[in-house]
Amino acid sequence: MRSLLILVLVILCARVSAQNGWMPLSREVERPYARALQRLGSDAHTAIRPYRQRDLRAIPGADTLRPAAALAILDRWSGAMLGTDSVRKFRWGPLMDASLALDMPGEDLLRYKLGGGVWMDLDAHPKWSFHLDAQAWGQRFASYLDTLVNATQVTPGEGYAYGTATDRVHHDWNGHVSWDPGKYFNLTLGRGRNSFGEGHRSMMLSSEAYSYPYLRITTSVWRVRYVNLFTRMSDIRAADGVPGDFRAKYTSMHYLSWNVNKRLNVAIFEAIVWQQGDSNYPRGFDFNYVNPVIFYRPVEFDIGSPDNALMGASVNVKVGKRTLIYSQLMLDELLIKEVRDRNGWFGNKQSFQLGVVSRDALGVPGLVLRGEWNYIRPFMYTHSDTRQNYAHYGQPLAHPYGSNVRELVAHADLYRDRWHAGIRSSMAWLGTDTLESFGNNIFRPENQRVRDEQGRLVNFGYRMGGVVPVKLFHGEFRAGYLLDPATATRIEVSYLFRLREEQGGPMDMDHFVRLGIVCHFRDRHPEQEVRYVIP
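^ thats the sequence. predicted structure below, dont judge the formating
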């Protein structure tokens, strides 16, 4: 709370200059700029999110990408707060969610979401900028989300769910200080989320989980952008919602992006996760992982570390003038011999993504089409010490379903001025666990897998969809009118259909109809499934 008050005072008292901050991590807020950022010939590194406001201003005609009415409103707010000389240097606005919904089938049909908050940006100097946003919600969840919240105690991406069994309260706040010490470097210290990838999902780091403290160092030279990301995550298990009892864990990540030419981008990624230790072995932040240019695996072996290290790569290709083909490959463990033998070795921990997105698709202005295939092997993102799994605040850091997932995503969105209509759908094939682990739950250690008659751990036979396959379809239609481009707030109506079918079991269907004011200021992922229970 003290840090939050200090940040507010700095924002209100500092003098202002030019825009150097960061956009919200929201595909909807970014949308007016997305076509220009990804166009043929653009040097933007669009897989690194959130986007820098300086990068957006470099787009030809950037001032015309947002509706003039929104800029006029911002001018009036800024002038009222700081005087006419400060117009658009200090920017602020409300955040509001207010919707009613019907959840069918069921006896208790009525659902709601009420939320409010504020966001503020300040350009204090050509090299300094500040941001703060905070929002709180009261909510009665859709049935399938209510089941998830009861199992994990967490609202997806929006914090710990306090309250009764039906009515929940949760909150989130984000803030950062951004500094440009030189032409090629940016240092950002804050609390929020980061994402690496062009897709709706990310196999590396997504916007799925809750906000976290971080230090991000961004280096931009020529056609290369290099990000060092250091974070402090939280393991909330057995803490009963008491933040002081959450156990700390840390991550250190590198993402190196290279625009090879006007069509091709390649990138490499690496991450390591370690837990802070306990009273018998207090560890804290391990400065062995601070070196900004190392590969973690050699360091891990050198210091004899049991930490969780992952590596990945991506290749993105611009086809024509409006289409992007993107891909990601992540490796936790890999033995080529075991992959070739196709024997279901538990250590074959890999994930893969292949997708395509087209803007102004088929020559239709404002039409955005996306197709994506995601594939995650059993035991991916888990670890023998579950305090070091690839998760934060009870949620995966990559795909919301965790591991043992095959998924096909298809989106179609049409934007005309302030109007929007879209269809979002995904079909997933998941595995399930029994008393033993078959690699579906990233919060279970690897040594809980199946044992043979002699009590030895079984190393082979772990297949996609095991042990009992589950099919999960999620489809949603949305239509709305944009009220505030700065926060992507819309008057919106939506219909969600969800179908879950477990082999040999019943088929569950959900229908969810919603109407209200919906704020898309942060990425949200309504496609969720209970794959673990957090005590």
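Confidence is low (pLDDT under 50) at residues 1-18, 67-87.
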